[in-house]
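Lecture notes, unit on protein representations.

Consider one protein chain, 56 amino acids long.
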Amino acid sequence: MKMAKKGKEKNTLNKAKHSKLMNRKKNKLKKDKELRAERLKVIVKKMNDQNKSENE
């Protein structure tokens, strides 16, 4: 029968750091995606307004 480990647990710090970094990366990607969508909406709206003014 094995005895329980003494001292601090092996991987908890690395796992915590990894989770933090991955969450930061996911948040950044999500923010970039939203920014791109907003810019695209502005461009599309501008083009639609321009086309309407040309057609009138």
